[in-house]
Write a structure and sequence with these properties.
This protein has 292 residues and is an alpha/beta fold. It contains 13 helices and nine strands.
C-alpha cells in the first residue's frame, strides 16, 4: 500500500542507523537526518542534513530513532516535545531499550497526541545494509498499516507483534536472550567435542544435521568463529547490555529469570570484563580459555 508523501526524520546514524537510513532514503519521501557526530558524512547522499533534533522535529511528520539506549530515547523525546511548532505525528523507536523505557516514551508522546511504536531490530549490520532485518513492532494495527511500507524498506521481516507499548522491546530482548544462550551453549559444546579429539568443523557439521542446530551453529560458527574472523558486527558489550535489560524487564514483570541471570553473570559479564572491546563471536575462544 502506498502512503501519502511525508517528510521522514531519522535520528541516530550509528552502525545500524546509518544503513537503515540509507535504505529508507530509497523511498519517494523526503528524508531529514541527524546525529550528534558527523551527520553529513553519515547521512544518505539524497537526505537533508539537519543540525539539531529540533530541526528534525520542525520538518518531519514521522521520526525514526536508532539510539544507544532508552535513556537517550527519553531525552530525545523530551527535545521533540519541547518544539512548539513541531510537525511530528509518529515516532518509531528502533532502539533496543527496556520495556519500562518504551512505556515511558509512549506515555510522554501520547500526552501530546503523538503516536509511538517501539520497533527494535535483529540481524546485525549486514542485515541493516541488505534491508533484511527482522523488526519487532508494537503498534495498533492502524498505525502498523500506515508505517509498514517504510518499515519494509529497512526490514523485510518486519512484523506487528502486539499493540501494547513495550511489547516490541520484550520480543527483541527475549530473542537476544535466546541468541546469547545459544552462543554460549554451542561454544561450550564444541569445546567439549574438541577435548574429546573431535575436529570443530566436524562437530558443527553433525550438530547441523541433528537436533542441536541453531543460528550459532548454522551461521556464526562456520562464517565467523571457525574462520577466526570474529566479525559479526555485534559487540560483547551490546549482548551484555541486552541481557541486563532482559533480566530487569523479567524481574519488573515477575517473569522467570533464573537462566538469564546465570547466563549474564556467569558468562557474558565475565567476558565483558576480560575482553571489553570484543565481537560477541569471540565467546568460543573465551569459553575455551576461561570456562573450566
Amino acid at each position: 500500500m502506498n502512503m501519502p508523501e511525508k517528510t521522514i526524520g531519522f535520528i541516530g546514524l550509528g552502525n545500524m542507523g546509518a544503513p537503515m537510513a540509507s535504505n529508507l532514503s530509497k523511498n519517494s519521501h523526503p528524508l531529514i537526518c541527524y546525529d550528534t557526530i558527523d551527520t553529513k558524512k553519515k547521512s544518505p547522499s539524497n537526505a537533508i542534513v539537519a543540525d539539531s533534533i529540533e530541526q528534525v522535529a520542525k520538518s518531519a511528520s514521522i521520526v525514526f530513532l536508532c539510539l544507544p539506549n532508552g535513556s537517550v530515547v527519553l531525552d530525545v523525546v523530551d527535545r521533540i516535545l519541547s518544539v512548539h511548532d513541531r510537525c511530528v505525528e509518529i515516532v518509531v523507536d528502533n532502539t533496543t531499550a527496556g520495556v519500562s523505557e518504551a512505556k515511558e516514551a509512549w506515555e510522554r508522546l501520547n500526552k501530546e497526541n503523538i503516536k509511538y511504536a517501539d520497533a527494535p531490530v535483529s540481524g546485525g549490520v549486514s542485515g541493516a545494509k541488505a534491508g533484511t532485518l527482522a523488526m519487532m513492532v508494537a503498534a495498533s494495527q492502524e498505525l502498523y498499516t500506515e508505517i509498514e511500507p517504510l518499515l519494509f524498506s529497512m526490514a523485510k521481516n518486519a512484523r506487528n507483534v502486539g499493540d501494547q507499548p513495550g511489547q516490541g522491546m520484550a520480543m527483541k530482548l527475549l530473542n537476544n536472550f535466546l541468541s546469547g544462550m545459544a552462543m554460549a551453549a554451542s561454544s561450550e559444546a564444541v569445546a567439549f567435542g574438541v577435548a574429546q579429539g573431535l575436529k570443530p568443523e566436524k562437530v558443527i557439521e553433525m550438530v547441523n544435521l541433528s537436533t542441536g542446530r541453531n543460528t550459532t551453529t548454522e551461521d556464526k560458527f562456520p562464517k565467523r568463529i571457525l574462520t577466526e574472523t570474529f566479525d559479526s558486527g555485534f559487540a560483547t558489550n551490546l549482548m551484555a547490555k541486552d541481557l541486563k535489560l532482559y533480566v530487569k524487564s523479567a524481574k519488573d514483570s515477575h517473569a522467570p529469570s533464573f537462566l538469564s541471570e546465570i547466563l549474564l553473570n556467569g558468562v557474558w559479564s565475565k567476558m565483558l570484563d576480560k575482553w571489553p572491546d570484543s565481537d560477541f563471536t569471540k565467546i568460543y575462544p573465551f569459553i575455551k580459555k576461561y570456562g573450566k
